[in-house]
């Protein structure tokens, strides 16, 4: 792993200051904003206090939303770590970037057109901390500060003296180290890719939180979701229920009331650990006089079933799996716009265009997302009314699917079946997706319209 010393890091900044047009001076142009992307792993949209969750404790993330903007309809276009992260870096749907599995890396050309490398080329200092998540190689040589990790790291770590330290806390240390190296000359972009609240696969404890949070939520009984009732899993077709990976993981995490309480509380404790790192980042920015010119984006790489529909994990097209938090904290926004909530459909493919837009760079034509900056700036731009969902990961226990999501309806189809199995939900009348209307004759025209829309997407997204 590449390591950056403080001396070498400052030397790099000094060299960049002599060449980049971004450097501000008393009479020169104002430096573009610094940008921090905070990406959690498997965090669903409603696992935040600011999203209406009255149990979870996330005061610092809530404050970001309170002083910034929150998108209440934010989604991923593919709900699995590797593909979603490739979409975040590239601003592209999976059908274009072609990364459907864990062993596929970016081509060199594709990597060159990710937001971190485009920013570096434009004079930004770039840092990356945490889970890289795309392929078996890491692009550490393209970053000024690199603490990236291949695969799924372990939560239980040790400090240089051999003392226990939770991974989330270590990532907080690294974030502070990076921010303390800045000297207010070149702008920077720091991407922090948390492991939390992802489970520790293969460990029976699953949600391995920092022991300092062990008593948090202990006196709370978390209500189970309506669709945890067995009738909803039983309503799935036979092919879906045959040795389904999401059902296997449900058995480990949620199959008894005790497992459910332990799992959800562990999940919440991991997110509270991330919230503490957010506090540390905000304090460090302020201490270094960086807070007034740093845009912070907080989001997740995909959602997560907490027992809904009798499932665990993600992958499928239900709201719990594809809907994520999305907060943009821009210190330049007027106070009259603080705390606003936006209903526009925000997607993971919008993150790269948004970051480039804040940096004042041209968004490449290859990017299929749209910048969210005009929305946050209250410019009311023309916006999408639907998006395409796809999940083509090759796994014998995860059926492949695709579909179209609108504000009012969701159409999904499992493409390996013959005939194709379809789902249709009226999201206004049925927000928990209890009633599949695909075979209801009253909705035949709506299904046909969305079928055609889905076909159009599959042909146009390459």
Could you explain how this protein is built, in words?
The protein has 462 residues and is α/β, with parallel strands linked by helices. The protein has 15 helices and 16 strands. A hairpin with a 2-residue loop joins strand 14 (401-406) and strand 15 (409-414). The radius of gyration is 22 Å and the shape is globular. It has helices spanning 6-17, 59-66, 81-90, 94-97, 108-112, 115-121, 167-180, 230-234, 238-241, 245-253, 257-287, 319-322, 351-358, 373-376, 444-460; strands spanning 34-40, 69-75, 125-131, 145-149, 156-158, 164-166, 188-193, 294-300, 305-306, 312-313, 326-329, 340-347, 386-391, 401-406, 409-414, 421-426. The strands form 4 sheets. An 8-stranded mixed β-sheet has the order 4-3-7-1-8-11-2-12, with helices on both faces. Strands 13-14-15-16 form a 4-stranded antiparallel β-sheet, with helices on one face. Helix 7 (167-180) runs parallel beside helix 11 (257-287).
Per the principal axes of the C-alpha atoms, what is the gross shape?
globular
Strand content: 15-25%
Strand numbers in spatial order across the main sheet:
4-3-7-1-8-11-2-12
Mean pLDDT: 93
Assign the structural class, choosing from mainly alpha, mainly beta, alpha/beta, alpha+beta, or little secondary structure: alpha/beta
Question: Which stretches are poorly predicted, pLDDT < 50 over at least 5 residues?
Answer: 1-28
Radius of gyration (CA) equals: 22 Å
Query: Distance between termini?
Result: 34 Å
Main pleated-sheet profile: 8 strands, mixed
Number of helices: 15
Helicity range of the residues? 25-40%
Number of strand elements: 16
């Amino acid at each position: 792993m590449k390591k950056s010393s403080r001396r070498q890091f400052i030397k790099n900044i000094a060299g960049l200051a002599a060449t980049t047009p971004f450097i501000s001076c008393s009479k020169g142009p104002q430096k573009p904003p610094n940008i921090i992307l905070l990406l959690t792993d498997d965090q669903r949209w409603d696992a935040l206090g600011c999203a209406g969750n009255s149990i979870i404790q996330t005061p610092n993330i809530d404050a970001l939303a309170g002083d910034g903007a929150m998108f209440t309809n934010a989604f991923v276009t593919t709900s699995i770590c590797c593909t979603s992260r490739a979409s975040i870096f590239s601003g592209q749907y999976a059908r274009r970037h072609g990364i459907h599995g864990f062993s596929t890396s970016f081509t060199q050309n594709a990597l060159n057109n990710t937001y971190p490398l485009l920013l570096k080329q434009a004079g930004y200092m770039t840092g990356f901390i945490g889970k890289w998540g795309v392929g078996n190689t890491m692009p550490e040589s393209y970053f000024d500060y690199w603490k990236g990790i291949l695969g799924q790291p372990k939560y239980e770590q040790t400090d240089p003296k051999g003392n226990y330290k939770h991974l989330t806390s270590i990532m907080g240390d690294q974030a502070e180290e990076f921010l303390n190296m800045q000297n207010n000359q070149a702008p920077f972009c720091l991407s922090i890719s948390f492991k939390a609240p992802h489970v520790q696969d293969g460990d029976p404890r699953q949600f391995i939180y920092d022991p300092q949070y062990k008593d948090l939520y202990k006196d709370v009984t978390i209500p189970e979701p309506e669709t945890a009732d067995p009738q909803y899993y039983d309503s799935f077709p036979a092919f879906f229920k045959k040795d389904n990976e999401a059902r296997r993981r449900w058995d480990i995490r949620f199959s008894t009331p005790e497992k459910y309480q332990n799992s959800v509380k562990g999940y919440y404790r991991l997110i509270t650990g991330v919230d503490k790192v957010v506090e540390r980042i905000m304090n460090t920015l302020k201490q270094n006089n960086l807070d007034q010119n740093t845009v912070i984006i907080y989001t997740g790489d995909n959602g997560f079933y907490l027992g809904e529909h009798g499932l665990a994990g993600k992958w499928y097209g239900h709201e719990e799996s594809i809907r994520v938090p999305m907060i943009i904290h821009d210190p330049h926004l007027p106070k009259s716009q603080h705390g606003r909530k936006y209903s526009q459909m925000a997607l993971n493919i919008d993150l790269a265009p948004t970051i480039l837009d804040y940096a004042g760079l041209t968004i490449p034509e290859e990017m299929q997302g749209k910048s969210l900056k005009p929305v946050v700036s209250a410019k009311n731009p023309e916006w999408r009314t639907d998006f395409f969902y796809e999940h083509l990961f090759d796994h014998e226990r995860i059926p492949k699917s695709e579909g179209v999501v609108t504000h009012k309806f969701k159409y999904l189809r499992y493409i390996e079946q013959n005939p194709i199995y379809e789902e249709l939900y009226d999201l206004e009348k049925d927000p928990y997706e209890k009633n599949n209307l695909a075979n209801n004759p009253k909705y035949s025209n709506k299904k046909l319209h969305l079928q055609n829309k889905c076909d159009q997407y599959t042909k146009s997204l390459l």
